[in-house]
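Regression test attached.
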Amino acid sequence: MNNKYNMPDDRGHFGPYGGIFVAETLMPPIQELNEAYQRYINDPEFIAELDKDLKYYVGRPSPLYHAERWSRELGGAQIYLKREDLNHTGSHKINNTVGQALLAKRMGKTRIIAETGAGQHGVATATIAARLGLECVVYMGAVDVARQSLNVYRMKLLGAKVVAVESGSKTLKDALNEALRDWVTNVDNTFYIIGTVAGPHPYPAMVRDFQSIIGREAKEQCIEATGRLPDALVACVGGGSNAIGLFYPFIDDASVKMYGVEAAGDGVATGRHSAPLCAGRPGVLHGNRTYLMCDDDGEIIETHSISAGLDYPGVGPEHAWLKDTGRATYVNITDTEALEGFYALTRMEGIIPALESSHAMAYAMKLAPTMSKDETLIINLSGRGDKDMQTMAKREGIEL
Amino acid sequence: MSRLASTFEELAKTGRKALIPFITAGDPTPNFTVPMMHAMVKAGVDVIELGIPFSDPMADGPVIQRASERALAHKMSLRRTLELVIEFRKTDDKTPVVLMGYLNPIEAMGYEDFANAAQRADIDGVLTVDLPPEEGSECSALLKARGIDPIFLLAPNSTDERVQKMDLAGSGYIYYVSLKGVTGAGHLNITDVENKLKQIKAHTNLPIAIGFGVKDAQTAQAIANVGDGVVIGSALISKVEANLDNPEQASKEIIELLVSIRQALDN
């Protein structure tokens, strides 16, 4: 193949998606960020520092674990789990925050802000901010503050200020709005660490590049374990950072199928879901053009999902492009199905997945039996379920 | 010549500054808006900026955010905002009206349908907060072809290069965001604005209206001295918010504030 995948273009477009749609005050800092990013991503010294942190601080490489018992039980493909849950702080989010925080340090920024849904990105940001001695403010929807109180406490312990956002639907999208407002006000000393592959260019490309360590490792580990490339990849998609991190290094490997799993909440037909790729339409939000959940008037619709980390009305523009070009397939899993995935992995393999990752598990339970025993399926286990213990116990009527 | 261009030209001839109020369409209720627009014209405003309610107003402070939420609770939309302007135009075909909002409602309508609808409503300008000229050429061209001015923002951190870009891309006037922050913020510095305006004026002949953080007659006067007009939004909407159970009182207080600013500007 000489037509190697090389998205986005230099203004951040993935076909019609992506781009830079922000108010004028943010144009100069975005330009500054883009220049710094282009410089350092090719700087051997920066890469060496990043690699060192990923190895000794994050704990990489994360294992590619053969879930033999579960594979046998499902009776199809050999299932391998990419164990991002074993990273420091418990999810893939730290791959990106370490990268962006090192960039912030080189740019001389002294203050870090972030938005968070489930709290995993907030914790990963507060963690690296603590280590680098940077001031840290995390914006979190008031609804999420209530349902992820454990992570709120972790962030506070780490020295971050957590701001509960009371506007709009009080979830992840409103936290992002508020973080953008902070950034506009404090552009001179502040670095905004976006946690997913959304936002204005260069964020979607930059976060992807920091997360693509997942796919690079998985490819090498899969070849080592099986002697060849995997046949299919499965990952959950909210904003889509763990999925793009796994998918990206495989995009030019045409034989590898990719499945992104959106949150169907109560079911796509009910309208109460978070599945813009499956049931939304193109529009512009948070600095980029992508698939969105919005009504005919262009107003953003409230989203629903059992998992706070998938509860977002948009999705990274690169996923929009991979959907339109047919390179990846996007499917959806309801809250109820996700819970089946949660219990299955917990009981079959002794691994408690995050509710976000449980969506990927649930889809794999449908996909694996349709594949043959000599085929390989890699699921991104993007985070561990510790943060969801309160939610799960409550559902089971247990008071902790 | 567009209505906006001739309004600013007329003002310049008499050495006056433009007073530009911003209110959110449909706040606190849809039937408040058109009578309020007429009353503001009577109070001596030169251009009206009408906010299109949006669920996620990222560049706005809490006051205008809540105005959007109130309007959306009454099912206000871009389509209905345009209908309000059509109603306003029945008895006022002189005052320029500028729509200000975010891109997604326009995307949802489609650029061409929007441009046609704006022309039918006799809109004079469109300011889309999250549509910089780099992404906005298609939409701007459709508007310009219909005699509607695309209006762009400049900020305290805008470079000379960006001023030149806005000069080429925009028409009608340039909206200068007087501070780094959201609408209604409280840290406006007149000297900073004055210095920046000198830099901007070196690269464009478009009139400059200054907004964000203008709260009262005194600031408005000081600000207007260095530009061609002032935009006042959050301070007006605060009056709406303080009188939600009494819209007449809200209207009265808004007019009082605008009259005091008009007087300060004309002195």
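Expected vs. actual: identical. The domain at 3-266 of chain B is CATH 3.20.20.70 (TIM Barrel).
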